[in-house]
Amino acid sequence: PRRTAAGANQTSASSQELSRLAISFNNLVGKFKV
């Protein structure tokens, strides 16, 4: 169980980072479009 919890934490953390990257990337693209 402990190992599973750690894995789940890592996964949610990386997906959070991914969505944050996607948002900043979208902002960059928006700046270039304008």
Automatic annotation (TrEMBL):
It comes from the Bacteria. This is Methyl-accepting chemotaxis protein. It comes from Pseudomonas syringae pv. pisi str. 1704B. The lineage of its organism: Bacteria, Pseudomonadati, Pseudomonadota, Gammaproteobacteria, Pseudomonadales.
